[in-house]
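ok here's the first one, seq then struct tokens
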Amino acid sequence: MDEDAVRAQVERLRRLGAEPTGIEVKAAVGGLPKTTGETLSAFQNGSGGVLLLGLSESDGFVPAAGFDAARIRDALAGLCHEDMEPPIRADIEIVPFEDGRLVYLEVPALDPLRRPSHIRRRGPYGGSFIRSGDGDRHLTSYEVTQLLSNRTQPVDDRELVVGAQMADLDADAVAAFLRRLRQLPNRAFRDVTDEVALTRTGVVGPADDGTIRPTLAGLLSLGSYPQQFLPQLFVSFVALPGLSLGETLPDGTRFLDNVTCDGTIPEMLDGVIAAARKNMRKAAVIMGAGREDRYDYPVDVIRELVVNALLHRDYSSGARGMQVQVELYPDRLVVKSPGGLFGDVVPSQLGVEEVSSTRNATLARILADLPGADGMPVSENRGSGLAHVLQRLRRAGMSPPTFDVTPGHVHVTVPQHALLDPDTVAWISALGAANLTDEQHIALALMRNTGSVSNEMLRAWGVESHAATAALRGLVHHGLALKTGGRRYAAYELADVDDEPGLFAGLDDAAPPPSSSSGSRPADGARQDSSLEAVVQAIRAGDVTTKAIAARLRISYWTATRRINTLLEAGRIDQTAPPHSRMRTFVVREGADPTS
């Protein structure tokens, strides 16, 4: 870690005026602070972080007078190697800075299968912490138990449900399930009784007295009414009037809608989808000879997120009083489930890699063979659910979800910001052009919001180059777009109203033109460079590292770096960490002038 990198880190702290979640600053003039072990534990149990000693936050993040860098480095090394379990093996550096010296330690996240990181003398239940805001929070007993349970395969979903009988399974659902099993190439279910087939799949099992009873997984999948025995295992759906839970309307209304979705997992899914459709805005687009409804959020995305929550949530006795929660705010959709990530999965993998670490293996197996209302399995059990969510959101011109992960919960938030929101869909529909493709919808939305679109900007949203070219040529052919620039730097703009009388007839009734604050069409001579806009759109679409941006846009790493630096200097994007940090990602600065 060189002085320039530390300077960039400190400049960020000074600009923020406070510590972000991933950085802990301590003056450490009188010795190593007693809470340092708690910070190390918190960083290791989360996403890692940076410990910067010898800097005075109270004086505006300047070197602390009287700081003994060598003594503090040695004390920190002893704490890492001798007092932490497991020991922390990372380089501790002394870095010159301004008129002093700082001690710098980049704390890596601990492998999930080795957590919790804790202060050895206090034990895992007394000495484990997690980062919360700019401080460290003591992990609850439930959260520590969750981390320890990652080391073995839980079997809570195979537990027999006390009091439940075979008669508490739905006969029609069981019959459909068995028919599907017996169509499989596997002969294990063909020439056996129904009871044996259900036992082999974990739907039922023998109790100590020999009675065959449904398991938790079997009852949730095939039961007549699972909540008779498991009253809190349902999905709650709420539509909220404000931007935070508890915010009310002037008349005291707390919820615009409040629905308890119970029954089996397929029935809970149906209930959530019905409630979501009722409470979302929608617009119709012309698709072939018919029309297709588009909502604030794609329905299949909501379904996939709720399936994931129900499949991967914690079903241990300590979590059976907690529900899966779906919260619809004016600006976002949030799906909450109890229990953290299972196995060696880390948050950075979610939706990016196909991970198949399954907490509830029996439930996953049943849902993979359980036909839904459309005849397809309720869950594929292939680790591809979140990857599908990201692909579907990208096709809809929506930003990717964010994940709030702790040892005790997983919260998935989908922002409503979208190129293809219902207002824009209504605007496109009012153009009167039939048979537009999804790629052309995104292109029109980009032209409306940024003033122009290019092949590269469409690639930022996951459109293949050849499909982007075809989509843009088609819009020109329809008279909806005009091409500007040469072959290499071609850009496309909305056709002017004056050039095509009547083309935008009815547009004002369908949706108002975008305001300047949301990115209105720039004046002639002030249109932003489409290559820079492609980077902005790639970040919006979820490619938030230099490597990911380069891969998405099919440009070199150095070209991506140059464009990113230009956008940083212009104030159009922000970075979350210094240039040399492995934790650096980028975010779009909302409201920034795209022509600056």
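and now the second one, same deal
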Amino acid sequence: MTSTATARRALGDSLGDPLDDPVFAERYRAMQARDARFDGQFITGVHSTGIYCRPSCPAVAPKPSNVSFYLTAAAAHEAGLRACKRCLPDAVPGSPQWDLRDDLSARAMRLIADGVVEREGVPGLAARLSYTPRHLTRVLTAELGAGPLALARAHRAQTARALLTSTALPAADVAFASGFGSIRQFNDTVREVYERSPLELRAAARLRERRATTTDHEPGAAIDGGVVRLRLPARAPFDAAGVFGWLAARALDGVERAGDLHYARTLRLPGGPGIVAFTASAAAESPAIEVEARLATLADLPPLVARVRRLFDLDADAVAIDAALSKDPALAASVADTPGIRVPGCLDPHELVFRALVGQQVSVKAARTTLARLAAELGERVAPPSTSTQSPSMPSTSAWPADKAPTTLFPSAAAIAEHGHAVLKGPAARVRTILDVAARLESGSLVVAAECERDELAAELLAVPGIGPWTAGYVAMRVTRAPDVLLTGDLALRSGAERMGLPSAAAELAALGARWAPWRSYASMHLWRAAGTQV
């Protein structure tokens, strides 16, 4: 049933018993059970009260005839609803749908979260997706209940609420950091969505903090000495150690620094270079990633948040993934030992491409050495954070002294295309491929980004001389968050399969792995773990 029909039904049109719709019935049962696993996966609109809630809202369950379910807060806004003041429906992990799906709507949502509408407008968003603005608006409205402007507006409102409730930033700075074009637009949007002025929203949050006896689950942010702090919630269970271990295994000197459950690096963002640090939250019952960042501009905050969520795979439906994979006796023990396993994403798609190209058919250690040398020779330098801006939750000056902080940006495609021949070593064919890819990325003839259509991206990569299925699959897995990739050409993965009593031959493993669909990327993480490697 379309969102329009659902809204009409909830408002009283005679469309039959809503519980006859199996999707509606499933969501209504989750709402009745106040099942927090569904928070962020859909939104409950209650037309009798004019509010929308998260599924786990503690309020009395409304009658089915008064309820609509929406995939986005923007759709609820378009239906004239406002956010619940009690359950804070936008203070939860995001929907896993935008990573799982590969259709136009999902790819648009990934770009909207990255702040493309604020930077380039709807025409820029549509151009990134190779559609006209009119067609894109029509598709998003039909499938998600709101067009790109409304979706971006809802995202700005959510960012503004997080900053208002968790920082002492002046309201004007919050408006700018959230992507609003004017203070008036900021004030009007916050009032419409939350039925409170920005200052009233902030005051209510302070009162709630004083009354709270436990840590709130919502994302938080603060600014101290030029450093922005964020707390980004993860959908439980969450194998934070696995992601940090993966990042540490390939950390590049100068660009990154990693340790036990912490990781820091330099990063290019739309407004300029930044230095970011990540640690895992100590609260097992409410897993999260603590982020500290020194940014060139507060406008880079929304794209940073979107990229960190992808890097740590925070929105994955871990319960569903573990339930599916544990049905296979060969994986059941690994799933039980490592619940909530994640597939690491990336912060910079171009950088990931070069890491994959250098890492083809060599060990992690050898690739790390080559990439670190490339960064040292061609990467731009950024100023290290001063000790005065560091805080107790950041790696301390003893664990992360200023003289060892990440200060080098990974080289741009332009720098590698122009100077890579003087730095890159190894087989001539591989060097030619790297330089070719760098030139294509710089010219725009090859686009590698989170919003790429997965099959199309794989085809374009495979068309480049020297790129094979392993590289194309690996890039799709980590850049576009493809959940169903099994890299049977990977020696370490096949070694892990053999240790788990599975076939190690590529063809046999591929045939057997079909039963893990649509979660073969997550099955791959279990196989790599069994091999004792971080590929």
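notes on #2: The longest strand covers residues 272-280. Residues 1-14, 213-219, 387-400 have pLDDT under 50 and may be disordered.
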